[in-house]
From TrEMBL:
This is DUF3025 domain-containing protein. It comes from the Bacteria. Pfam families: DUF3025.
Length: 274
């Protein structure tokens, strides 16, 4: 498996791939000329965002000397509304854009972390916090009622899910599936995609006809549904998260237009009996 790497200098040369279509359309990401400042990222917020402690979300510079633990990071955001953002960091840029595209969900994740830390302390990381972190970094949201497609994904029937049912992906139809990238680490790793790159999908069971609405409306609706699902405990542990080979998602990368791409069973692995 290729070791993950990303660009060290600013470029958006990778952003013409389909996996960046939504973020390009929502934030004009592919038009940026250089590393955005915190002030520039702030302008992308659809409204003045607040966390669930009624603090205004502000992207603030994080110096090289500052090193937040996961606990301190979540506590700091909840108590101040300030999101530490490192200069020239793909990870933090995409993290900030996630706040802009999924404000309710990001605020909910932050509060769930904060409440869990206050209740259980910092010594042992709970199954809730593990699941929230995994989804925050690597999550993909599928909106669909198509149980055939979902079962194919759960059973790692990749040929069925990605080839036989290919025309249903991104389709605004009753049996289609609408796809929304959430994890900011996914976006970072997709700058230089590699065999082995895998996200975690979570389903919102609703009609994919939502995909026929204007994109900003889609994101508002998905954000609200996702935040509600999190409040209702959908991620109390990892049991509702399933692996998704990101390079195999139809229309996300040119490489998978050749169906022989899916023959690589080191990447598109069959489901283990264990």
């Amino acid at each position: 498996m290729k070791k993950f790497e990303t660009f060290t200098e600013w470029t958006t040369s990778f952003a013409d791939q389909g996996c960046y279509d939504h973020i390009n359309r929502m934030t004009a990401f592919d038009e940026w000329a250089g590393w955005p400042s915190c002030e520039a990222l702030q302008t992308l917020q659809p409204d003045e965002l607040k966390n669930l402690n009624n603090k205004t979300i502000q992207f603030v510079p994080q110096s090289a000397e500052q090193d937040y633990s996961a606990v301190a990071y979540e506590e700091y955001i909840y108590e101040t509304g300030k999101v530490p953002t490192r200069a020239k960091s793909w990870h933090d840029i995409f993290g900030a854009l996630s706040w802009c595209m999924f404000p309710n969900t990001k605020a909910t994740i932050n509060k769930l972390h904060y409440d869990d830390i206050k209740q259980l302390g910092t010594q042992n990381r709970s199954s809730l916090r593990n699941a929230l972190t995994l989804f925050d970094e690597c999550g993909v949201v599928l909106v669909t009622n198509n149980q055939t497609l979902l079962n194919a994904l759960k059973q790692h029937q990749w040929q069925q899910a990605f080839i036989e049912l290919r025309d249903l992906w991104h389709q605004p139809s009753a049996d289609g599936v609408a796809v929304y990238q959430f994890g900011h680490a996914n976006y970072e790793m997709l700058t230089k995609p590699y065999i082995g790159l895998t996200g975690k999908w979570l389903v919102i069971e609703a009609s994919a006809e939502i995909a026929g609405l204007p994109l900003n409306v889609q994101y508002r609706m998905v954000d609200q549904k996702l935040a509600t699902a999190l409040k209702n405990g959908v991620l109390n542990d990892n049991s509702n998260l399933y692996p998704l080979p990101l390079m195999g998602v139809p229309k996300w990368l040119d490489a998978n237009e050749d169906f022989s791409f899916y023959d690589n069973t080191d990447y598109f692995r069959p489901k283990s009996d264990k």
